[in-house]
Amino acid sequence: MRRVWFWVIGVLAVAGAAGFFVWKPAGGNASDVAYRLAAADRGPVVASVRATGTLNPVTTVLVGSQLSGQVVEILADYNTAVKEGQVVARLNSEQIESRRDAAQADLAQARADRETKGAQVDKARSALQRSEAIALDLAAQRDRARAQLAEAERNLERQKTLSARAVGTQSALEQAQTQVEIQKAALASAEAQIASNKAEATGLRADIALAEAGLKSADAVILQRQAKLKDIEIDLGRTDIRSPVDGVVVKRDIELGQTVAASLSAPTLFTIAQDLREIDIHANIDEADVGRLKPDQAVSFTVNAYPNRTFEGTVRMVRLGSQTVQNVVTYTAVIGVDNRDLALLPGMTANLQIVTDEREDVLRVPNAALRFRPAVTPASTGRRGAAEAGTAGPQRGPRRSTDEGTGGRIYRLGPDGAPQAVPVRLGVTDGSVTEVLSGELQEGDAVIVGGPRGGAADASAGPGQRSRPRPPRMF
Question: Is the pLDDT of residue 287 over 80?
Answer without folding.
Answer: yes
